[in-house]
Design a protein that fits this description.
The chain is an alpha/beta fold. It has 15 helices and eleven strands. Strands 1, 2, 3, 4, 5, 8, 9, 10 and 11 form a nine-stranded mixed β-sheet that branches. It has a two-stranded parallel sheet with strand order 6-7.
Length: 355
């Protein structure tokens, strides 16, 4: 789920683009990694170049490519148009991929650093026992808003429908997140399979068109919010922290109606020719020094206990990154939906975007 603007837009439009490789020797194994844009410490501003460090330690090459949504990643893998060893999807998509036999089990004889996971992440609803996945980060979805462009503090998802912010409102170009917002606003579960509720959400999203058009975005939210081009936008908490650091006029809230809490996890694709190296990569990403450098750069919430313990007190107490129980009690995680529900949402979303 994250995800800064310029690079990920380029990569999303150009499909998969390799960011890093080491050496030219054909004798070196190549590990193919598929991740969200700007979701790893990459050596900018003196930070750790995670991929380069892995290549050096394991004498390998890494083809590191980006996707912008879970659905894009799934479509490319399921179509057979791309091949990867490690992917980092979100909870509900991992559940879908497990059901469709798309993932290899994790080898915990290699991935020993997973022992450092917080108790709440040692098993998940979407992958009980973490058989096929190892949590990478977690966080919430909320509203990023410009305090100089809105009237008072934001408290509700209704703000994204407020006519006073017409053309200054951004909205997810992602049907699951968009419908999830409408579901919370209307008092439904974000995992509803009720056709009447889903159609009501579609009608609600159509009402929003005047305020949003043409600002359906994903990573573009960074530039638009940071330079003051937009007033309000839904986005992910970790990225909100990055945006606020660039523009102190910005703030973030999980609306009173509730929201989504997500876990992104590292998985190995079924049929990978580099299974052992893929497990080594996951173990490497869970290693305390690597995970510490990584999480401090991307500003997402760590599932690793010692990494959390080592964070500055100011970061640990930041409710955007580490929301309290009251906030989390208003949130729910996405689960995989039945195929007919997914198709209905996709068809209705296509109508919304096309209008």
């Amino acid at each position: 789920m994250k995800r800064k603007v310029l690079l990920s837009v380029i990569f999303a439009s150009a499909a998969a683009v390799s960011l890093s490789s080491c050496g030219n020797s054909s004798s070196k194994p190549t590990l193919k990694v598929f991740n969200w844009g700007e979701y790893i410490s990459d050596g900018q501003d003196g930070t750790l170049d995670t991929i380069a460090e892995f290549e050096k330690e394991f004498d390998c090459k890494v083809q590191y490519d980006l996707f912008s949504t879970n659905e894009e990643m799934y479509t490319k893998l399921s179509s057979g148009s791309v091949e990867y060893d490690v992917v980092i999807p979100s909870d509900y998509m991992i559940s879908k991929m497990i059901a469709e036999d798309m993932l290899e089990p994790i080898n915990y004889d290699i991935v020993t650093n997973a022992e450092n996971l917080m108790d709440r992440f040692k098993t998940t609803d979407f992958d009980p026992g973490n058989v096929y996945s190892v949590p990478y980060t977690w966080g919430t979805v909320g509203i990023v808003y410009n305090k100089t462009m809105v009237n008072g503090p934001i408290t509700s998802w209704n703000t994204l429908w407020d006519s006073q912010y017409d053309t200054k409102t951004l909205m997810f170009l992602n049907n699951r997140d968009a419908f999830g917002i409408a579901e919370k606003l209307l008092g439904y579960s974000q995992n509803s399979t009720d056709e009447s509720e889903i159609r009501a959400c579609a009608d609600k999203l159509k009402e929003q068109k005047a305020a949003v058009h043409p600002n359906y975005v994903m990573d573009e939210v960074f530039d638009k919010m940071e330079i003051g081009e937009a007033a309000v936008a839904p986005y992910y908490a970790g990225d909100a922290v990055t945006m606020i650091s660039e523009n102190p006029d910005l703030d973030f809230v999980v609306p009173e109606e509730g929201s989504n809490v997500f876990i992104d996890s590292m998985c190995i694709v079924k049929g990978s020719t580099q299974v052992d190296l893929a497990n080594e990569f996951i173990n490497f990403m869970c290693r305390e020094d690597i995970a510490q450098a990584n999480i401090e750069y991307i500003s997402y919430s760590t599932p690793l206990q010692s990494v959390y313990d080592n964070l500055d007190e100011e970061v640990r107490n930041n409710k955007i990154i580490y929301p309290d129980d009251d906030i989390l009690a208003r949130c729910e995680s996405f689960v995989v939906l039945p195929n007919d529900t997914n198709q209905l949402i996709q068809d209705l979303w296509n109508e919304i975007i096309a209008e």
